[in-house]
Design a protein that fits this description.
It contains 15 helices and 5 strands. With about 350 residues, it is α/β, with parallel strands linked by helices. The N and C termini lie far apart (about 70 Å).
Length: about 350
């Protein structure tokens, strides 16, 4: 068989679909799930911003009766359907997109600049020529044999297409620069979605309280909000506000406090102290909202960082240090760190 890499503009691709020169073959569909509006909107926005999307795979078939050739979509059926539907004005983009100029609009409602970007967008594809169906299947078997296994975060983002998944994706994108600035994640860790794991665990604590989390725990969180996510706006405001506080505390950047398991507890404390959450009240009772004094908080946090870095931590900090270096994903340790950070931020911290 031959595999011919090629390109086709969206305009030409959709015209070919209209003429039934490109068709869907359900036998190759990997999943029966239909993308929800938010997933479709994210794809179209990606194209309108000129970012790349994964290549499509098409299988060229010759009909011996009509002596005509057509192409079956082997990989990329959801993408193709989404592109074709938007081309035909069948849905409007989500109003929650970050690109205000296109949010909430159908294709016909876009400015001419964005219409042109969409129609002229170049779709990359592999065209399978002179192939048999078994050979096409074998191609994907072999490709998958050399693919790096997905970690749990990547698997969740491949499996779920609901509002919680897209909220986490958007939040991670907006906070990426801060996470890199403070030394929390490397670029390699961001590529493997370590930031989405942290943000998911923080959301789990805000909704369900601090607990030991597992892959199943986080999978269940995605599943429980795969159709509706009523808490989205509230969690967004709380998390972004807390991360902004961390960004301002420059004295703790690049210190031992800036590790994912410790940052989990610090961000939760910053959220809870400023506006208490019922899910966290059992661990730290916050009778009224407290305005965090940045200078005082930074001094207290620096003291905790120094205790972690000391060869022999001061006895006064022993419990915090122990909870920060051992069994760090366990509920008890998380709660201890959270309590220390609440004290530090609420102004009641003393060495």
């Amino acid at each position: 068989m031959k595999i011919s890499p090629t390109q086709m503009t969206v305009a030409d691709y959709c015209a070919s679909m209209q003429r039934l020169e490109i068709v869907v073959n359900r036998k190759y569909q990997r999943s029966d799930k239909v993308w929800p509006p938010v997933a479709k909107s994210y794809l179209i926005e990606t194209m309108l911003l000129d970012y790349p999307v994964p290549k499509l795979s098409l299988f060229q078939v010759t009909d011996l009766k009509t002596r005509k050739t057509y192409k079956e979509i082997v990989d990329g059926q959801q993408r193709s359907s989404t592109i074709f539907e938007f081309f035909n004005d069948e849905f409007a983009l989500s109003r929650n997109l970050e690109t205000d100029e296109v949010a909430g609009k159908k294709f016909s409602e876009l400015e001419d600049e964005f219409k042109s970007k969409f129609l002229e967008y170049s779709l990359g594809m592999d065209l399978f020529l002179s192939a048999t169906p078994p050979e096409v299947v074998e191609v994907f078997r072999r490709i998958n044999s050399y693919t790096i296994p997905l970690n749990p975060e990547e698997h969740r983002h491949a499996s779920y297409q609901g509002p919680f998944k897209w909220f986490i994706a958007s939040l991670a994108k907006r906070l990426e620069a801060v996470f890199v600035l403070i030394g929390l994640f490397s670029e390699k860790q961001l590529v493997r979605m370590a930031d989405t794991k942290l943000l998911t665990e923080i959301c789990d604590a805000l909704l369900n309280g601090i607990r030991t989390t597992s892959r199943r725990t986080l999978d269940n969180l995605y599943g429980s909000r795969d159709q509706d996510f009523a808490e989205q706006a509230d969690l967004d405001n709380r998390i972004t506000g807390a991360v902004e506080l961390v960004r301002r505390w420059t004295a703790i950047h690049e210190t031992s406090l800036v590790k994912p398991h410790i940052m989990y507890s610090l961000i939760l404390a910053a959220i809870h102290v400023t506006r208490a959450l019922p899910a966290l009240e059992a661990v730290w009772r916050q009778d009224r909202p407290t305005a965090i004094d940045p200078a005082s908080a930074e001094v207290n946090l620096t003291a905790l960082a120094s205790a972690l870095d000391a060869e022999e931590p001061p006895e006064a900090y022993a419990k915090f240090v122990a909870a920060s270096v051992d069994r760090t994903n366990v509920k008890e340790q998380r709660e201890i760190r959270f309590q220390w950070f609440c004290r530090a931020l609420a102004g009641g911290f003393h060495a």
